[in-house]
Target: Sugar phosphate isomerase
Amino acid sequence: MNDTQHTDELLRRSLGIGRRRFLSTCTAVAAGAVAAPVFGASPVHAAETPAPATGRGQSLVPADKRGIILYTVRDATGRDPLSTTLPSGFRDVFQQLARFGYRQVEFAGYGQHANAPGGANLESVEGARLLRSWLDEYGLRAQGNHGFIPGSWPLTSADLDTFKKHLEIANILGMDHMGTGNDPTGSAYKADWDVAADKWHALGEIARVAGIKLYTHNHDAAYGFLLDGGPLDAQGRPTRSSGIRKLEYFLSITDPKLIWLEMDIYWAHVAQYKFHTHTAHDGSTQENVFDPAGLVERHNKRYPLFHAKDGVVNTTNGEGYDMVPFGTGVIDYTTFFSRVGHRNYHNPMVEQDNAPSSTDPGQSLEHAHIGYRNLAALRRA
Model:
């Protein structure tokens, strides 16, 4: 058995799957992406081949920037290690992700199964020190967390204390960033986004003093159009749009030294599909197709983090896509990462919301492996 076969055998055993299924998975990875019948995409091939350091063929995501948000494998961190031979709990999952090649992780909270090393709740200074020891052990770096952002405004003393505790945890874990999985507000109205900006400025200043960059993660709704004019409704609210998108407005009124963003590239493409026309102040219908990479280009250094999530076309579900393992869909990541530049600045985190399976306990880690292979395979055209 050669070194490659030995490594594959270790991975197969650690995932708890049969040899035939493991080989079929690897074949699927090597096959690359599905061709894009509608939106247009460049195929992604999984085999990682040597590439020059610069120019054509250059790896678009450097090895030390390849990450994953742990939400993708939340069933594995939450699994009872006493009931399975599969990786269970943070420490085992870190070890497995490092074997795949990942060098960064983004947390989605600090809970795991009570029987895993460290216990159920590692959301404490002591828990953070334990997590950091495991990250260091397996050569991983924590880059962010979808954690506690106070919902109240003005801030209560209790919320402020909790927020500061999370900043302390972030520093122990060695994070540059701390944020949330939610939009600044779910509202379509300018006044509510103004309030959200005030709140995020206050939180961003506290985070800055702690040496942490505060970020907000965004879904498709944040790229819809802001209602900022036209006739008012019965509650006195505007009903039409100038054509500016909600998050674009948020970017325009917030301090780039206090507030950063994490683009979920999948949901940005869903927004491209859903929000391409708006009713202008004069009542006319205007077309304005969203360009996710273009938004990042205009505000490049405000996007230190991405969620790299893929989809295949589905025009029947209202969103335009169905989620699939990264690199097996039609979203053109080669073009996206080529356009946004700053390859040593951005930190793409593989994510697949539907990776866990109720019938296949090993699926989320299998899909995490596929995601890594395809992220590593991205090359400049």
